[in-house]
């Protein structure tokens, strides 16, 4: 038996997105899905080491939030489930794949691997392996945007926003509460995005949490808190846009709880025996990519052929990324200490 919260309903109008925007959102979600599927194949072939956590099923959250921001200007922080956040931020697939292969051409120069995607030009603050570790980092990033603008008078930081992604498990960690307190107190331009996929490895969220409706925790800080159907990219985009506007207007942070599900095990080493078949089926039948494809077609924004073309193009990009990653050099042992300390 499994139980589900009532998912908040979002009625997308036919003018919710333009054709161009819709196709970009679709492409980003397809990129995330196909990238992760290819990643699983490469892992099975022994091309990468350590734990690899895939994002299948959660694509609408990454796409819906990050594409509502100014990509490359606003900051994003992630968790160990970070490949797709990096891709939505615009980090090229070849750099993410090379990072997974531990190669010098990776976005973290092959030093980070799956859980540590980082890219200064894309304002990606990193994937973090410790649960909730990214929350204080993102809060600090939001603080510096405000401080540089308001105290140092540097207008180049005007209206910069940070999005901070983490899981439901992380919301029981002390850093979550400490950071929400400071962010609300100082009205920081930040969006906390909890990807509530119901499970923290094998621990069901409802069994570990006294108040499972995470968005409600915002109210004790006087912060805006909102729940959203994390399988609906337009719903996520809509709440993210409101949160971004609030942050840019100096009205402070928002806590968004996106109700979502991971279609695969916790990591590629997880046999995924704990979650019931019925629960998995319930969520797989709500696949965010299929849902959005139907929306685009029903509203005459795209036809199946156009969507197929996107899928072919994206798969080619990923195949090329694999080829480049395979053919890239590993970091040279003589450079072991490079990047350990910041250089001027
Ligand atoms: C501080 C800390 N404690 C424990 C772990 C082990 N651990 C890794 S992932 C995980 C579950 C986290 O679940 P959640 O935050 O819901 O994210 P999800 O994996 O569902 O994306 C745990 C407990 C860790 N990485 N860091």
Provide tags for this entry.
344 residues, alpha/beta, Rossmann fold, six-stranded parallel beta sheet, two-stranded antiparallel sheet, 11 helices, 8 strands, 10% strand, globular, binds thiamine diphosphate
**CATH superfamily placement:** Thiamin diphosphate (ThDP)-binding fold, Pyr/PP domains
Q: Tally the structural domains.
A: 1
Count of distinct strands: 8
CATH topology category name: Rossmann fold
Class derived from helix and strand content: alpha/beta
Describe this structure as you would to a colleague:
This protein is α/β, with parallel strands linked by helices. It has one domain (19-325): Rossmann fold, CATH 3.40.50.970. The protein has 11 helices and 8 strands. β3, α6 (174-185) and β4 form a beta-alpha-beta unit. α1 (19-44) packs across α11. The mean pLDDT is 96. The structure holds thiamine diphosphate. Thiamine diphosphate binds next to β5.
List the helices and strands and how they pair.
Blueprint: H1 19-44, H2 59-66, E1 75-77, H3 83-88, H4 93-100, E2 124-126, H5 134-150, E3 162-167, H6 174-185, E4 190-196, E5 199-200, E6 203-204, H7 205-208, E7 224-229, H8 233-248, E8 254-259, H9 277-284, H10 288-298, H11 304-327
Parallel strand pairs: 1-2, 1-3, 3-4, 4-8, 7-8
Antiparallel strand pairs: 5-6
Helix pairs in contact: 1-2, 1-10, 1-11, 2-8, 4-11, 5-6
């Amino acid at each position: 038996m499994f139980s589900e919260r009532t998912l908040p309903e979002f009625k997308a109008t036919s003018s919710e997105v333009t054709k161009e925007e819709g196709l970009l959102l679709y492409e980003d979600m397809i990129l995330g899905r196909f990238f992760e599927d290819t990643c699983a194949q490469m892992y099975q072939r022994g091309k990468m080491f350590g734990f690899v956590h895939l994002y299948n099923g959660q694509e609408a959250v990454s796409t819906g939030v990050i594409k509502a921001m100014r990509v490359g200007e606003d900051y994003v922080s992630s968790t160990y489930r970070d490949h797709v956040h990096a891709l939505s931020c615009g980090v090229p697939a070849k750099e993410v794949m090379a990072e997974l292969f531990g190669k010098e051409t990776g976005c973290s120069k092959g030093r980070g691997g799956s859980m540590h995607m980082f890219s200064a030009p894309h304002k990606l603050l990193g994937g973090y392996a410790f649960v909730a570790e990214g929350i204080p980092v993102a809060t600090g990033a939001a603080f510096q945007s405000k401080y540089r603008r308001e105290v140092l008078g540097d207008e180049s930081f005007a209206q910069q926003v940070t999005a901070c992604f983490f899981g439901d498990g992380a919301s029981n960690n002390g850093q979550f509460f400490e950071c929400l307190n400071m962010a609300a107190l100082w009205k920081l331009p930040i969006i906390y995005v909890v990807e509530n996929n119901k499970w923290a490895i094998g621990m069901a969220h409802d069994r570990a949490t006294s108040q499972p409706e995470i968005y409600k925790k915002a109210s004790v800080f006087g912060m805006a808190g909102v729940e959203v159907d994390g399988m609906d990219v337009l719903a996520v985009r809509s709440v993210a846009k409101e949160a971004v506007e609030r942050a840019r207007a100096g009205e402070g942070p928002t806590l968004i709880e996106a109700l979502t599900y991971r279609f695969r095990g916790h990591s590629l080493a997880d046999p995924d025996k704990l979650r019931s078949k019925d629960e998995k089926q319930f969520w797989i039948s709500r696949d965010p990519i299929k849902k959005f494809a139907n929306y685009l077609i029903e509203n005459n924004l795209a036809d199946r052929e156009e969507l197929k073309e996107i899928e072919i193009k994206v798969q080619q990009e990923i195949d090329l990324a694999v080829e480049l990653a395979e053919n890239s050099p590993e970091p040279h042992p003589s450079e072991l200490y490079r990047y350990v300390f910041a250089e001027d």
